[in-house]
Design goal:
alpha+beta, 6-stranded mixed beta sheet, 42% helix
Length: 187
């Protein structure tokens, strides 16, 4: 078991990711924060203070955040159909476990869920929910469940545990607990 990241590094990574047009699973934020902690330990060993008031070590934040996000973006090799099918199955199960209702997807290779009562809705008729797709050459992709939509990457592991994190993010958006990335003023 790895040690948890420091609160300082977690806050720096969370702030850095908040300025981007993508979503990040808690495990990705924690991994990036642990990497930032390791960068700071190395910098300290070379005589650089962790709390550099002039911001000269800000590049360490960028390096840790980008390296970790890249790791959970596109796969290094294309996924095979059986991998995609298994991850879709895991995502469907995760959606069901958090109480979401699966519906027919309007997006290719997507798993779609209905909007929740009292939560945000999308689409021209204000009745569309959300969908998450995963392709051979992509990470998790969040979109409105309609044929034309903007897409937001969700940086999360392509594992059943990652599918549960993706489901939790989608559930949070549908409940209104997390910012709606599709709102014009959200990003």
């Amino acid at each position: 078991m790895q040690a948890p990241p420091t609160g300082h590094s977690t806050n720096k990574i969370t702030t850095w990711y908040a300025g981007l047009r993508a979503l990040y699973a808690p495990s990705v934020i924690a991994e990036a924060a642990r990497l930032l902690d390791a960068f700071h330990e190395t910098a300290t060993a070379y005589g650089h203070p962790r709390e550099d008031r002039l911001g000269r070590l800000g590049g360490l934040i960028t390096a840790a955040a980008e390296a970790t996000a890249d790791k959970y973006g596109r796969p290094t090799t294309n996924r095979q159909l059986d991998e995609i099918t298994e991850l879709h199955r895991a995502l469907t199960q995760a959606f069901t476990e958090v109480g979401l209702t699966i519906t027919g997807p309007h997006v290719r290779m997507g798993v779609a869920v209905e909007p929740l009562d009292g939560g945000p809705r999308w689409g021209w008729d204000n009745a569309a929910g959300l969908a998450v797709a995963l392709y051979a050459n992509s990470g998790w992709e969040l979109m409105v469940n309609q044929t034309r939509t903007r897409v937001f990457s969700i940086h999360a592991p392509d594992t059943p545990a990652g599918a549960r994190e993706v489901a939790a993010i989608v559930h949070g958006i549908l409940r209104g607990d997390l910012p709606d990335p599709f709102r014009a003023d959200a990003r």
